[in-house]
């Protein structure tokens, strides 16, 4: 491919054309000078022709310098515009990546919601009025449904402000009530555990005291055996002696 086929910009095509003209003028000048006779002096007409060819070449070179300067400035401006466009493209690409990330996140949330184990019966009835689950319990298997919550009627009787609450608010209030009750029971359990530890320590102390008392009694019995033996020796004599009335 020729340079003219590769370069499509009009200003660059002018620069190529001026370069070709300058090249042709330079070749013509060289051919004209080389064809001159090798004599010590040249004719006045020959010098005039050389001067004309030189001026023509200088004119082409001046035009080529101007076009080159314009092309250089145009290339600099094009680079600046390209850099700005690249920054804009990078910004848009980053926004696109963020949108892709958000899309994947939302798709994951949608899939999680679609695979949710609990499907309220009211939702099923709204989707299909002829559904056989009308009036049935929600199709759930969540752990919070297995909590030993107090019945709804008893809860509303204790807290009448939730009489007009929806199912979500009512269930949340019942769970919070159960949590508060369990916290209270846990506090009582800890207090009773402390009391149990105190009673256990007191019982252990009393057991130790009783064990020491048993040892003291054994020592006392061992110490009293000689006295019993002595009284045993004088027993018949004491029975024989009668105290006068």
From TrEMBL:
GO MF terms, alphabetically ordered: mRNA binding
Swiss-Prot/TrEMBL GO biological process terms: mRNA export from nucleus
Source taxonomy: Eukaryota, Fungi, Dikarya, Ascomycota, Pezizomycotina
Membrane-spanning parts: none
Protein name (database record): Fms interacting protein
Domain of life where this protein originates: Eukaryota
One GO CC term on file: THO complex part of transcription export complex
Localization annotation: Nucleus
Residue ranges the record marks as coiled coil: none
């Amino acid at each position: 491919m020729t340079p003219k086929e590769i370069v499509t910009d009009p200003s660059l095509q002018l620069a190529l054309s001026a370069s070709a003209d300058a090249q042709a003028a330079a070749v013509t000048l060289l051919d004209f000078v080389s064809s001159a006779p090798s004599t010590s002096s040249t004719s006045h007409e020959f010098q005039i022709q050389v001067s004309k060819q030189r001026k023509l070449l200088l004119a082409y070179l001046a035009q080529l310098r101007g076009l080159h300067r314009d092309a250089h400035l145009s290339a600099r401006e094009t680079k600046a515009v390209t850099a700005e466009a690249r920054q804009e493209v990078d910004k848009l690409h980053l926004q696109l990546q963020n949108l892709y990330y958000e899309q994947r996140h939302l798709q994951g949330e949608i899939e999680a919601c679609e695979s949710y184990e609990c499907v309220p019966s009211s939702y099923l009835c709204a989707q299909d009025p002829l559904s056989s689950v009308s009036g049935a319990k929600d199709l759930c298997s969540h752990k919070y449904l297995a909590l030993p919550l107090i019945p709804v009627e008893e809860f509303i009787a204790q807290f009448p402000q939730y009489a007009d609450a929806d199912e979500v608010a009512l269930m949340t209030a019942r769970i919070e009530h159960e949590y508060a009750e369990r916290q209270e029971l846990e506090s009582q359990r800890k207090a009773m555990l402390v009391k149990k530890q105190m009673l256990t320590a007191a019982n252990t102390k009393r057991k130790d005291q009783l064990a020491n008392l048993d040892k003291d009694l054994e020592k006392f019995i061992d110490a009293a055996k000689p006295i019993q033996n002595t009284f045993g020796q004088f027993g018949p004599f004491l029975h024989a002696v009668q105290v006068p009335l």
